[in-house]
Amino acid sequence: PSFQLIPKKRGEGLKRRDARDGIEERDVRTFEFDKKFKIGDMEILPCRVDHSLPGATGYIIYTSEGVVVYTGDLRFHGRHKEWSYEFVEKAAKVKPVVMLSEGTRIKEKEARTEDYVQQESTKYIKGKKGLSIVNFPIRDTERLLTFYNTAISNNRTLVLEYRQAMLLDLMRKNGIESLPKSNDENIRIFYPKKSWGLIGRDDFPEEQIAQDYSSWEKYYLSLDNIINVREISKHQNEYVMFMNYFQLNNLMDIKPIQGSVHIRSICEPFSEDMELDQKRIDNWLKLFGLYPEQRIHSSGHACGPAIFDMIKKINPKVLFPIHTLNPAAFKELSGIDVVFPEYGNIYEL
Question: I need a labelling partner for 328 at 20 to 30 A (CA). Which of 190, 211, 216, 274 fits?
Answer without folding.
Answer: 274
